[in-house]
Protein: Major facilitator superfamily (MFS) profile domain-containing protein
Amino acid sequence: MVGRQRTCAGAALFLIPVRSAPLLWFLSAAIGFLFRFSFPAWLCVPSGVSRVDAEHIGTAVGLMLTLAAVGGFVVPLVFEKIVPAAGYGAG
Structure:
């Protein structure tokens, strides 16, 4: 079930460039709603993939969330430099 929801969220992301204003509101809600269902599966990654011991799962999940938050802060700062250098303007 999670795979289907991630596929739907990916399809919604793909539709963003060809959107109208009402469709953009719908796509934003759909992406947020569908990605919420993949979050619990993402929390299982430390135990399932890297075989972290049960007593260290909280630390591993905290580290993953910290790295995601830092990326969410740093990536826009990097794109702030890349986009004007590539010749794109605001708007």
About this structure: The chain has a mean pLDDT of 77.
